[in-house]
Amino acid sequence: MKILKKAITLNVGLVLMGSAVFAQDLNDAKKAIDAEQYQKASSMLKSLVSSKASDGNNYYNLGLVYLKTGYIDSARAVFTKGITADPKNNLNLIGLGEADMLSNNPTSAKTNFDKAVALAAKDYKTYLYIGKAYLAQDKPSEDVSKPDFTNALANITKADELDSKDKDAEVFLAQGDAYALQKKNSEALGPYMRVGDVDPNNRRAKTQIGKMYKESRAFPEGEKELQDVIAADANYGPAYRELGELYLQWSSFGVDKEKAAKGIENYKKYMDLTDKSLESQLRYAQFLFYAKDFKTLEQVATSLQVPANDPKGIVVSRLKGWAAYENKNYPQALTYMTEFFAKEKDKSKILGNDYLYLGKSQLQAGQDSLAVINIIEAAKIDSTNADALAEAGLSLMKAKKYGKSAEIFQMAIKYNPNGKGSLTNYYYLGQTRFYEAYIAQKEKKPFNAAALVAADSALSHLNKVSPEFALGYFVRGRIANLVDDKTTPKGTAVPYFEKYVSLVKPEEVAANKTNLSESYNNIGAWYSDKDKAKAIDAFTKSLALDPADTYAAARLKELQSPAPAKGKGK
Hints:
By secondary structure, the protein is an all-alpha fold. Helices cover 69% and strands 0% of the residues.
């Protein structure tokens, strides 16, 4: 949860709305909080604060709603009013302590917790809520420290001891949460199952069990747990969210279209049953990105209404840019990503994908140098983004910017030496360096011999790790031909061309006709004055591939012509 350190404007004495809309029942408000219906819960609690202004429980739960929706300062204001209204109720002190934890101030939190204990040291709920407050950072962001599991479990254990009759399912729920947040699912399972024994109508524990199955990739088991929750309560939104995220993971993040569609369907149901808060809409937008539903993502992202000074606006710019690029709306993607970078001043919050989409958008706009800088940044953060360096290299190669292209493939190798697509990077490095030198030679300009040596080394590595990669030998042959002494050639290219033609399979000949013909011509030329039969065979094969090849035809005719008769003496 992105914590917004700002306050919602509070009118004098908390002028409250909606008092006639919802029943004046704290348990109903708590159920709404659990179901993540925060706007509904907020209206109910404001009404309760107005009608029962001396009951600290109402203030505490209203403050929790503000904490859960990211408004720490507003929560503090409510907790403070609650302490004034009901000074013997320690819950609002615990609320202030939780706000302190979310503000990375554990010292102040401990002070408030100690005051709460001093007021009601024998009440198990004191320790239960303190324990839960230590777990409050269950969605840590850059602004929020990790949960204090040690203090959380110590207080929850104390609550369990004081609740000797095990009458409160909330204690077991908190125990389960403390373990689940540490990914200790085996330890969490027992307490979550106890919840059902104490409170058979509790939906969250079973939802958490389904979530744990999802995290363990036991998708069928998780699906059953979550569908059981929905069967028992078709209006319990969190179960649909977890089921949606389960299907997303089960779909291998959009690869299985049917499961991805199920994921989106369930997540939309979750949205319909909850507040459609900005936070949940942003989470839905991120969900759509990973489900690869980019069209819907762009629609959702562009429709989001964000207050001018709300930092979530930066996230919206990000998602608009990502979606626009994936939908091939490249100019708009560049606009959105430029806007994002202008807004986000904290470099530590910039993701690899942000640099990636900015760079790729710049590449589409012809801003090659800027594009490469940003794609390199993306690869530094996440080596899988090195694939985009390869894309940039190919784009530059198609534009015949061979030197620049070769530099990019060299970087792609650096950041992705052994990963997906890495072998082709070695090949393209060799190919682009060959083209660069070939054109320079053709234009009677000096070429970069050192770069060619490095390219040949890359191709040599390719030959070793993938000896069946035929084109690697072909390009090595071209490079060797280019640098061979033109006056007294050594024929170093010939073994590479011979290896290449030996590796091309019959079904691959049609796609490799041009390269095969070039290889046979080079082989034939080398053997013309050394092994006439080999030379004739090579040129014959070249002509079979390309009957219009005048060079092969001329050389074959020359080799097959009878030798001129020796002149007789007088």
